[in-house]
Amino acid sequence: MNIGIDRLSFYTSHYYVDLKELAQARSVDADKYYVGIGQEKMAIPSPDEDVVTLAASAAYPLMQAGDLADVELLLFATESGIDQSKAAGVYVHGLLEMAPRCRCVELKQACYSATAGIQLAIGFVARNPTKKALVIASDIARYELGTPGEATQGCGSVAILISADPRIMTIDPECGYYTEDVMDFWRPNYRSEALVDGKYSTMVYIHALVESWKQYAELTGRTLADFDRFCYHIPFTKMAEKAHQKLCRKTKVELDNQAMQALLDESLRYSRITGNCYSGSMYVGLTSLLDLAEEDLAGKRIGLYSYGSGCVGEFFSGVIQPGYRAALFAEQHRNLLENRTELTYQQYENIFNYGVPTDGGDYVFPQYKTGAFRFSGISQHKREYESLV
Ligand code: CAA
What is the tally of structural domains in the chain? Predict the structure, then answer.
């Protein structure tokens, strides 16, 4: 049975900071960000946006299209969750008025957990072929002001519908995966900003890639030449390029800059202007590739590398299906990204310092624009949301 991605919808905040502004505030040459790490803009969530509203807005087009009717499993992948007990997906289930016959849990392993979610969802569909699973990856990447990680912040969510006979991409059964207990990036419960050993994290990312690829190659007998495009986890776009260069060197494949652009560039464009969104990052890359590639990718095999610090890596692959373009939300994504509002550095810092809302606070949220849903406050320790549709 062919199982894979039937729909793919991306959502990010309406606000961004141009990294030229950040560079000026930090007295850094803007090309360090634009060229050195390959990032131009970072999406900034307004105070009334969180992982729930981002996720509900990402999945809303699927609700409108009637695609959620047969969903009996909702897996919510995040590392910036809003409750230690209740799964963020249960709020989304409510906001999207999904059927009560549905399993719903939250998954965490840094930026990797959506991929675990997809593999679990494939198992669910294999056993229940007429049913569907919704995997939502939703995160807000937040580092302390003035730290090296600051320019790699961002936010976003991707809603991924998994079904039999999928319209977009079948997922191959073979995968290579790798776990090692390391401290390259982490966020203790008492902190709202992540801690990271930056240079070390880039080395671990690549080590886990090489190990995952080795297993995948042994299982399938495939070589890098068997793929038409690659999508990597994208903490910043330069990281994906460096990872692919390293994999080519290790496997003795020649790769000039033009060849690398042809294999990777379409998948990096959304991330370059939105930033890291942790668990959704690789799937933003896949969305970007499918939306923007001028070439018809039907029948082409895509290599996918998912990485979550701490760390777990997985290399897997999929084959794009004939007619896939009709199942995409490319037009909505284009409108979203073209109609955002730029923040000044001061506005960015004000939003950053707004802090984590707690019960009893006198929160009057500034009326920033959100998507279809809005976080409206906390009362008696209960988060409240509004549907704007
Ligand atoms: N013009 C062009 N390039 C310039 C430049 C200029 N004026 N100034 C500097 N550069 C280049 C540097 O030469 C460097 O390039 P190389 O990497 O090719 O040497 C690049 O810009 C970055 O400069 P630095 O190495 O000096 O940057 P930094 O140390 O200040 O920060 C970082 C880099 C450590 C990766 C930092 O962005 C960071 O900590 N990021 C967060 C952690 C992260 O994203 N890790 C990735 C792997 S972990 C993961 O993937 C999980 C996750 O999502 C977090």
Answer: 1
